[in-house]
Amino acid sequence: MAAIGKPLIVIVGPTASGKTGIAIKLAKKYGGEIISADSRAIYKYMDIGTAKPTPDEQNQVQHWGIDLVEPNERFTVADFQKYANTKIADIRARGKIPFLVGGSGLYIDGVIYDYEFGDDVNKNLRAKLEKMSVEDLQKYCRVNNINPPENDKNKRYLMREIERQGIVKNNRKHIRPDTTVVGITTDKEELQKRIADRAEQMFNGEIEAETQTLAKKYSFDLESMKSNIYPIVWRMINGEISRDEAVSLFQIDDWHLVKKQITWFRRNPEIKWLPLDEIERYIFGILCDSNEQ
Fold it and tell me: What stretches of the chain show up as alpha helix (H) in DSSP?
């Protein structure tokens, strides 16, 4: 069949649910390449703290969407949409299957629903936001998976953060053609164990050195620095908290992220939810049907 007929396989789920492992397995088996849809993995030098695929994992199959910008560079959802669409077309043109994999809901939806994005300053969006209350703006951030500013009670800050994403139209009615979206279901206790194990692994690694390197070059006022593990590790390095307290805080942060991700994805009726060990068989069926068309 023609290269353009290759389906887009989308794998979503909360952090620590096993997305990377299953995506690599499927991409290797079926001749695919992975596009990471992780709003933290786009930053260079943030390797351990963002739980990027390891160098060994990246060597097993081609990965895209990783190390795109410096931590102090601006990168919007619209930027990711453009990047991902370019990679999807390129992967298909080479006769391979694109796998879009991640837990950043707005990154995923921006691609599979082809969201429209405005310019940096969109007058219609600005007028709409100015009429909204602080509570309405806070809700807008939650609904659209936008990280609110540190001062989320300041209307101007809230508006600026929303405008930074440049969202104009959210349309969940029309998913792009030839797209299959699979979500990983994970038992709560199993997911908490995965998070705990990952926290211990991170803090037994080189996370302190990575944090110190980043702190020398970048400010903790940056959104990229605030939304990761690094502020917690920095407090530990400076003696404000113990290692055990740092590990606990990181697990709490990760669990909050999990709940946010699950809430976001559960609203999407297009997602086929399956346990991790059933996804391979399901994707096999999808690809067989695609090949028969």
Answer: 19-30, 55-60, 77-93, 105-112, 123-130, 134-143, 155-165, 188-203, 207-217, 223-226, 230-237, 243-266, 276-292
